[in-house]
């Protein structure tokens, strides 16, 4: 991003992160209350990012040990803001007020606006991060209003990108098993949301399923697909 792009994002509050105490509260809430039933991100990568600090701008960087060497890793600002959005619903009202928010709903709307602006800026080449962010946006649970088209809209975008990435196809010989597990979890979460966000068949405004069973040959998830302690 050039200076004018960064200035635009900063002017519209998209690069603003919550104070560190609230970040910690949100991440704790995300890990305990969101991730167990919505495991779409790489938890290890996220925790390393927070531990080693951020480089503000288009992306955040962190370092981790791989094969005895320091490896540079990145987490997109878009995805991190989406994680903040998903977790802020569960932090205490006291923590929100201490950070300057007047209410939980206003905090959710502010975080949602940040994610939406970053997504609309369309500067991210990591499509998986975009898909993860779009899926997390469905959790905002905001009623449709002038700048929110509803959870189904963001899910439909996530599904379209998932098809473009080929997440619906089984990888016979994945190069990176850990990355493959994350992608499998993302795909199946899209499938689950596609079913649960679709109203019952007898509803006049029923949303048709975007994902058909015969489209995909990705096997059901197993314990090996999750970040579980040994």
Automatic annotation (TrEMBL):
Tell me the superkingdom of the source: Eukaryota
Molecular function (Gene Ontology), one example: zinc ion binding
Which CDD domains does the record match to this protein? fungal_TF_MHR
What is the protein named? Answer: Xylanolytic transcriptional activator regulatory domain-containing protein
Q: List residues of the Xylanolytic transcriptional activator regulatory domain.
A: 151-227
- Source species of the chain: Hyaloscypha variabilis (strain UAMH 11265 / GT02V1 / F) (Meliniomyces variabilis)
GO BP: DNA-templated transcription
Q: Which UniProt keywords apply?
A: Nucleus
InterPro entries per the UniProt record, alphabetical: Fungal_Detox/Toxin_TFs, XnlR_reg_dom
């Amino acid at each position: 991003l050039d200076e004018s792009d960064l200035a635009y994002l900063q002017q519209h509050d998209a690069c603003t992160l919550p104070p560190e105490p609230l970040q910690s509260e949100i991440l704790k809430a995300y890990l305990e209350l969101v991730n167990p039933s919505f495991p779409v991100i790489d938890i290890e990568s996220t925790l390393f990012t927070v531990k080693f600090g951020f480089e503000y701008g288009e992306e955040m960087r962190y370092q981790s040990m791989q094969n005895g060497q320091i490896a540079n890793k990145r987490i997109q600002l878009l995805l991190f803001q989406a994680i903040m959005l998903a977790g802020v619903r569960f932090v205490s009202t006291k923590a929100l007020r201490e950070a300057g928010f007047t209410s939980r709903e206003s905090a959710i709307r502010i975080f949602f606006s940040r994610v939406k602006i970053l997504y609309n800026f369309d500067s991210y080449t990591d499509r998986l991060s975009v898909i993860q962010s779009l899926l997390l946006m469905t959790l905002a649970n905001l009623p449709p209003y002038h700048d929110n088209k509803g959870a189904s809209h963001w899910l439909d975008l996530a599904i379209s990108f998932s098809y473009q990435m080929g997440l619906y196809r089984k990888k016979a010989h994945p190069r990176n098993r850990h990355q493959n597990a994350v992608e499998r979890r993302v795909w199946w979460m899209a499938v689950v949301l596609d079913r649960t966000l679709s109203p019952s068949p007898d509803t006049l405004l029923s949303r048709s399923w975007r994902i058909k069973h015969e489209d995909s040959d990705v096997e059901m998830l197993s314990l090996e697909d999750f970040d579980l302690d040994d």
